[in-house]
Design brief:
Length: about 210
């Protein structure tokens, strides 16, 4: 039986509701997100009560490797994370779950300036496919640097939901060991494109 977990991962299982202390004057959004990244923080404005997640480029779901944070915007749509310099993906899910978007930020270490990006939220998509193998290994199917994943205890179908439109790298890995100290062996990876509000079907993945 597949174990499916597409949004909350490891330390993100407790989604915190925070009241952000910083405000972005003059920024207003109805169905969009504005993200401002500095060498110390990632903050911005999204639709009120949206869920906001931040992952570094090395984040791997299920085993919770790398840095991953989750929060919810306040009643004015403000959010803030304290983060060291690095490359992050900011993943936003609208308050009703019918819109999503991402903004990739990469503030430079030691600089006082900021990187700003505005993006409209769009209908999320779904990635579906099948893993075909004679091996009886447990496998992890996930999107690189994101929190969508599914564990397959046997070969079979998978489906990753609530994926913001965009281009991703999908990976399939063999899981070894217990959850604590889990090791992964990457067996397959491919670049995919997810379109708004649609299913992205993949050809069978065989190895």
């Amino acid at each position: 039986m597949p174990i499916k977990h597409t949004l909350m991962c490891g330390s993100l299982a407790a989604l915190l509701l925070v009241q952000c202390t910083s405000r972005l004057a003059g920024v207003e959004t109805t169905n969009g997100c504005t993200v401002v990244a500095t060498a110390k923080t990632i903050e911005g404005t999204v639709p009120p009560w949206s869920r906001v997640f931040v992952f570094d480029s090395s984040y791997i779901p299920y085993i919770d490797s790398g840095a991953g944070f989750g929060t919810a915007a306040d009643n004015k749509g403000n959010f803030q994370f304290n983060t060291p310099p690095g490359k992050y993906v900011v993943f936003v899910i609208g308050p009703t779950g019918d819109a999503a978007g991402i903004a990739i930020t990469s503030p430079d270490s030691g600089k006082t300036g900021s990187v700003s990006k505005h993006q409209q939220l769009q209908l999320p998509g779904v990635v579906s496919g099948t893993v075909v193998t004679a091996a009886s290994d447990t496998m992890l199917v996930f999107l690189e640097g994101m929190c969508q994943y599914q564990v397959l205890v046997t070969a079979g179908a998978f489906s990753l939901d609530s994926v913001p439109p965009g281009t991703y790298v999908l990976k399939v890995a063999r899981i070894s060991g217990s959850l604590i100290g889990t090791g992964l062996t990457i067996l397959h990876e491919q670049r995919i494109r997810v379109n708004p509000g649609s299913v992205t079907p993949l050809a069978p993945i065989s190895f």
